[in-house]
Write a structure and sequence with these properties.
The complex is a heterodimer of chains A (355) and B (321). Chain A has helices at residues 49-54, 84-88, 102-105, 112-124, 128-141, 147-150, 160-172, 190-207, 218-224, 242-247, 252-259, 333-336, 338-345, and strands at residues 5-18, 21-34, 38-42, 64-73, 76-77, 95-98, 178-182, 210-215, 227-232, 235-241, 309-310, 316-317, 346-347, 351-352. Chain A is of the alpha/beta class. In chain A, helix 8 links the parallel strand 7 (178-182) and strand 8 (210-215). In chain B, the strands form two sheets. Chain B has an eight-stranded mixed beta sheet with strand order 6-7-8-3-9-10-12-11, sandwiched between helices. A four-stranded antiparallel beta sheet of chain B has the order 2-1-4-5, covered by helices on one side. Classes of the chains: A alpha/beta (355), B alpha/beta (321). At the A-B interface, helix 8, helix 9, helix 10, helix 11 and helix 13 of A face helix 7, helix 8, helix 9, helix 10 and helix 11 of B.
Chain lengths: 355, 321
């Protein structure tokens, strides 16, 4: 399906023990990540998007366990790694993560400069002076003005956007092959968000890393992604190129996510709202997990889990609607006219306003 | 500025809020000379980034923050500073707030029954126990929850449900004015639409007036009738929603509009990024003020900038740009 995957996940299943009960957070996911491409993983909270990517770096919480599946990276199965020492070869070095809240990723009592150069010294074995030189270079790269002065400052002296830039600099210090961005802009203002997104894009080009973007903001996805994976209740229910997901989505959940966006809403028109709440993953999910909330569910959706239906070489979805025996269903009007609607709403340059 | 056909519900005049003010310390001016009116029955959006002072304005209307200058009028009565006990009760009852984080704004050791009826208790707004229960049931039902949820505790609910409880406890007071401070930003995407629809429903059914505080222009575009854009404690532009989106004038408004991520890859990927840099702007000439460029479109500018904006606006109105 994907040529030359840098990371390949096969039949992954993750379970958590919570107060004597077992929660299945990831229910059998297989996915290939193509090198140098950006894959965005979207879904609501609790859908398992963070858990999924945490398995790539062995960062599951102590009560979590990969119970099944393989993750192939650079010719080896990461699931064979048994201890933290083994993970150190991968985590941070080959696969780095940028988290949502930059304040919790940084140490508040160490200077910014120390925190960047520490990583360079540890992973690349450079001397203090060399590390400082490289740290300053990185700071310039991520858009910190006057790095010499700001090198000795502490995180609290930085604004939220600047802190996130530092976290990115630290992540890049080891020249990772894959950068996982876990909601990197959710805690930031929209204007800053736009800058950080651009920065990650530019750096991906320069440092040649593969980006995995976790977000619930479909606007951000439209900007950054080459491929989109839509997650629901611990599964990927639709996967495709960004154009396929936005202009030709097939799964009712993807339709629901897109049509509930206030960006697409017209004043006076009621916004589409997905009914109900996601299923509890403590119990076994029967059939299509989205069926109870869907407007398009059929009898079979409550009985049997849908298989993967291929739509194109790059696009697939897990919904019985794609079965040849299913009645033909048109996506909601908002979805069919999404591009025209957005064109009508924006003027040249992609900004709201009359054309 | 006052329109004869529209009744002003709330008016804020020259509002200034200063934190940490003392004789030694000059303090931090969080809100600088804010002026606006909110008409009865409209939804007024207040948009700005974090630290811009938008929440502070909301809190000072609620009398939660003391103000250092200016006046706040509600239904023709001044409600800031020292006011009589009855007036204060009126304000608390008629102006209700919906908060950003529904988990933090509900007492986690109280049942939903108590959370929702707390206001009724405080104001004795019920005839007897039966009447109170009926009111709570109605309020819960109006936000799509069931009466049997009453005996539960806040942690037993999902984020969207908790926010609906927050709305129920505001609505049960039958307020005239609601300040919604980022009511959907802590919620999941699939839940946001539910809460927005619910707020719209109350607006239509009860003729409520909202002040909607947000950092996200896309939500405000859908929800608000008029929008004020605030930057660094100063209101830089006020206009009806469609006018603001069609003819934005202030450079900060432009950059905010630009930053809204659009759910359309072709449009979003072709978009250029404009960064608003206040230090690069030309501030020569007199001091700017918030002044009308069209009867209902106000922009923060001095005479020189007004001329520029006027030129730009008349070009845009002719649809040349």
């Amino acid at each position: 399906m994907v040529n030359d995957p840098i990371l390949s996940v096969k039949n992954l299943e993750v379970k958590f023990k919570v107060r004597d009960r077992v929660l299945t957070a990831i229910r059998n996911i297989s996915l290939d990540f193509e090198e140098h491409k950006v894959v965005a993983i979207v879904g609501e909270s609790g859908s398992g998007k963070s858990v999924f990517t945490k398995t790539f770096t062995g960062m599951l919480d102590i009560n979590g366990e990969v119970t099944q599946g393989k993750i192939w990276f650079e010719g080896r199965n990461l699931m064979d790694i048994k201890d933290d020492k083994g993970w150190e070869e991968i985590r941070g070095k080959k696969i780095a993560t940028v988290f949502q809240d930059p304040m919790t990723s940084l140490n508040p009592v160490r200077t910014i400069g120390y925190q960047i150069s520490e990583v360079i010294m540890k992973h690349q074995g450079k001397s203090k002076e060399e590390a400082k030189k490289e740290a300053l270079e990185l700071m310039t790269k991520v858009g910190i003005k006057d790095p010499e002065r700001r090198y000795d400052e502490y995180p609290f002296q930085y604004s939220g956007g600047m802190r996130q830039r530092i976290v990115i600099a630290i992540a890049l210090a080891c020249h990772p092959k894959i950068l996982i961005c876990d909601e990197p802009t959710t805690a930031l203002d929209v204007t800053i968000q736009a800058q950080i997104i651009r920065l990650i894009k530019d750096l991906a080009e320069e440092y040649q890393f593969t980006t995995i973007y976790i977000t619930h903001d479909l606007g951000v996805v439209a900007n950054v992604a080459d491929y989109v994976a839509v997650m629901y209740a611990g599964q990927i229910i639709e996967f495709g190129t960004v154009d396929e997901i936005f202009y030709d989505s097939r799964h009712p959940y993807t339709w629901g996510l897109l049509s509930s966006l206030p960006q697409l809403g017209l004043k006076g028109e009621e916004l589409f709202a997905i009914r109900g709440t996601p299923p509890s993953l403590f119990e076994e999910v029967k059939g299509d997990a989205f069926a109870p909330r869907s407007n398009y569910s059929m009898k079979i959706d409550f009985i049997k889990e849908p298989p993967i239906f291929d739509i194109t070489d790059t696009h697939w979805a897990k919904t019985w609607l794609l079965d040849p025996r299913a009645p033909k269903v048109e996506p909601p009007l908002v979805i069919r006219t999404l591009h025209q609607r957005m064109l009508d709403m924006t003027k040249k340059g992609g900004v709201y306003g009359e054309r | 500025m006052e329109k004869d056909n529209r009744e002003v519900l709330l008016e804020v005049k020259n509002l200034e809020v200063t934190f940490n003010n003392s004789r030694r310390n000059k303090g931090f001016r969080a809100v600088k000379n804010a002026n606006f009116q909110i008409y009865k029955g409209e939804t007024f959006g207040l948009v700005g980034e974090s630290g811009s002072g938008k929440t502070t304005i909301g809190r000072s209307i609620m009398r939660l923050n003391p103000i250092s200058n200016g006046e706040i009028w509600f239904e023709g009565k001044r409600i800031d500073g020292k006011i009589s006990k009855e007036d204060r009760r009126d304000v608390i009852r008629n102006i209700q707030m919906i908060f950003q984080d529904p988990a933090a704004s509900l007492n986690e050791r109280a049942t939903i029954d108590y959370c929702v009826s707390e206001g009724l208790y405080n104001f004795h707004l019920y005839e007897n126990e039966e009447d109170r229960e009926r009111k709570v049931d109605e309020a819960l039902e109006s936000v799509g929850l069931l009466p049997e949820h009453k005996s539960r505790y806040p942690h037993e609910f999902s984020g969207g449900q908790r926010q609906r409880i927050g709305i129920a406890r505001a609505m049960i007071m039958e307020p005239k004015f609601i300040i919604a401070d980022e009511p959907i930003s802590a919620l999941d995407v699939s839940i946001r639409a539910q809460v927005l629809n619910l707020m719209n429903k109350f607006k239509e059914e009860r003729g409520l007036t909202y002040m909607f505080i947000a950092h996200d222009l896309s939500v405000v575009r859908y929800f608000a009738d008029r929008i004020a854009v605030i930057h660094n404690g100063r209101i830089v532009e006020v206009a009806p929603t469609d006018v603001l989106f069609k003819y934005p004038l202030h450079p900060y408004t432009l950059s905010l509009l630009q930053a809204v991520p659009m759910p359309d890859p072709q449009i979003e990927k072709a978009k250029e990024l404009v960064v608003y840099d206040e230090s690069k702007r030309d501030f020569s000439g007199e001091k700017p003020t918030l002044q009308p460029i069209r009867p209902d479109h106000l922009v923060f500018a001095n005479d020189r900038e007004m001329k520029e904006y006027e030129e730009k606006l008349s070009l845009m109105e002719k649809d040349i740009v």
